[in-house]
């Protein structure tokens, strides 16, 4: 009987293994279908808008100079959205195919933050938001990371803090020592904040608290999923603290280089 018991246990294990395999495949399949559906939707909406304006212009609305300008501006907004979504999709595709190809080098994170601030100074000004660098360290802070990808993380977090920040608000970036071997980079805003119930899903692809608000801000709904992907590909951790109505703080760890 012990042999039969052993055999039956092995059979059970085998069947259980196959069951898990099928479950994983089915989940991946439905995940893929959802993803495709979301992509189609993200492209379709602005594309139809652009088409609508172009058709109206072709039908003669363009004869009036004012109307022509207004419609062209709206069509251009749609194109801008398409470009943003396409860029983010491209980034996700790259991360998926060479996700492990993280090019680790020693980089000065202070310099990288300054670059990102310079890039978005105008955008912040337009919304009356101040970008502040809480410079505890006056010397270069060297960390290990992929320059382009970490810059992308900073860009996405800073852009979000501007998009969802309150006018006259402030975005503060700070770096602290996290433990012996890591720093933590924090991007904090005093903007609209996020309700607790959304926090667990916020890093999912296409997850948004407010669809129309995100779209009106030119968001693809992919920014934070890209951030998480990059941070985790560095074997680092991302944290999020947020209080609805008060503001949010996104932070991530980075390996100290020296
Ligand atoms: P999106 O393109 O919609 O900005 P993200 O993936 O970057 O996509 O962010 C997902 C959602 O998380 C946003 O739609 C927004 O609701 C919320 N969010 C992101 N950053 C912030 C922030 N700093 N403050 C408040 N809400 C935020």
TrEMBL record:
GO terms for cellular component: plasma membrane. It is an enzyme of class 2 (transferase). One of its GO terms (biological process) is cellular response to phosphate starvation. One of its GO terms (molecular function) is phosphorelay sensor kinase activity. Signal peptide: none annotated. It comes from the Bacteria. Residues 38-258 form the Histidine kinase domain. The keyword Transferase applies. Its EC number is 2.7.13.3. This is histidine kinase. It comes from Polaribacter haliotis. The chain holds residues 89 to 346 of 346 of the full protein.
